Amino acid sequence: MTGHATPAAAAVRWPVPIGQAAERAGVSARMVRHYEGLGLLAGVARTDSGYRQYAEADVHTLRFIRRARDLGFSMEEIAQLLGLWQDKARASSQVKKIAQKHIASLSERIAAMQAMQRSLQALVGCCHGDARPDCPILDDLAAE
Fold it and tell me: Global pTM?
């Protein structure tokens, strides 16, 4: 190993078309268009024939969005985080506040899912799971 970049890595010529940008960011071309439509990715250059052309900074932004989505942030939260990321004069307290609010939301969702799991486990425990037509799971789902 010589420590040099591979020819494929060194051969990137910016800007790149949407397919390459999507691949480099780990998202689909459809999602790139969606993020652009939401205004999360602004000012994308176009060729004379109208094809989108993405700069390295655009791909970096797409990776930021993908990572934020992986962490479960909403599009509104991602828009706020992007604005803060791009604002070099930001206060980190603003970012922390958004993340803390998201953690609280995740905790609520986890608690709700655990309650659903306990309810379903109790119903499954009551079901004989045999050839009989009686089914407490269906009875519970049909209850008014």
Answer: 0.82
